[in-house]
Design brief:
Shape: globular
Helix content: 10-25%
Strand content: 25-35%
């Protein structure tokens, strides 16, 4: 009798904005292996630095209990001033990856999202303040500061209750709109995020706030998800059509834990 395949308990978390941070490798490994970003190695510093091949973009991941943990800086270009994006420690890596995937897409296409609010309206978010939008449960909001004549930075904030901020994402005024829209589309996506060990990493286990469904998944699917992601993103940079990597529809895990 063949051995029973090994399985792993995987949690499916909704809303995804409260699924905790996850494994940074979901962002950093594809940037390096699929998009050619280089990294510096300093084993004495608890940080990761990745720079784009053209040296115009720098991603810094640095634990900072008083500020954002992820910061993406982009140099000025002839048609756009310098810009930045930053993300708090508990920002799900899948949402950050939506931004880096859009940034490194060699051919974003005409259907790339442009209005950061469009997909949120489609899933029931409503107007908030002067120029913002809030989730149906009031636990998350996105707003743009400034004036119509001089629009400023974007802020996406997730809270528990009225005062406890879970995480915040910030985008400078000159951030390309399709990158902000890629983030808000991922933020508003109703599909759950997958994670293991969620009992210790979720910001709350309140069943009135977070829905957590656990199921057994084949370990080979869980372990191979990051590799599948790398191959899929690398295929965007080929000059000839490439057969897509078969998707195993598996929860992502490559040493990651929520």
């Amino acid at each position: 009798m063949p051995p029973t395949p090994e399985t792993v308990e995987v949690d499916f978390i909704t809303p995804r904005r409260l699924a905790s941070g996850g494994d940074p490798a979901w962002v950093t490994v594809p940037l390096h292996r699929a998009s050619g970003w280089s990294y510096g190695d300093d084993p004495l510093m608890p940080r990761v630095l990745l720079s784009s091949p053209d040296q115009k973009a720098l991603l810094r991941l640095e634990p900072d209990p008083d500020d954002q943990w992820w910061t993406l800086h982009h140099a000025a270009e002839p048609n756009r001033p310098a810009w930045y994006a930053s993300f708090g420690a508990r920002t799900p890596v899948e949402l950050i990856a939506a931004v880096t995937d859009a940034l490194t897409d060699p051919a974003p296409g005409a259907d790339a999202p442009g209005d950061p609010y469009r997909t949120l309206r489609q899933v029931g978010w409503s107007p908030y303040g002067d120029d913002g939008i809030v989730s149906p449960d009031k636990s998350a909001y996105v707003e743009r500061l400034g004036t119509p004549a001089d629009p400023g930075a974007w802020f996406a904030t997730v809270t528990l209750g009225t005062h406890q901020k879970v995480w915040q994402a910030r985008f400078g005024a000159h951030t390309p709109p399709h990158l902000v829209a890629a983030f808000t589309a991922a933020l508003g996506d109703p599909k759950p995020l997958h994670g293991t060990d969620s009992g210790r990493s979720l910001p709350t286990l309140d069943p009135n706030v977070v829905t957590r469904k656990t199921t057994d998944v084949l370990a080979v699917y869980v372990a191979g998800a990051l590799e599948d992601r790398v191959h899929s993103l690398a295929a965007r940079h080929t000059t000839t059509p490439t057969a897509p990597t078969p998707s195993r529809q598996a929860p992502p895990r490559h040493g990651r834990s929520r």
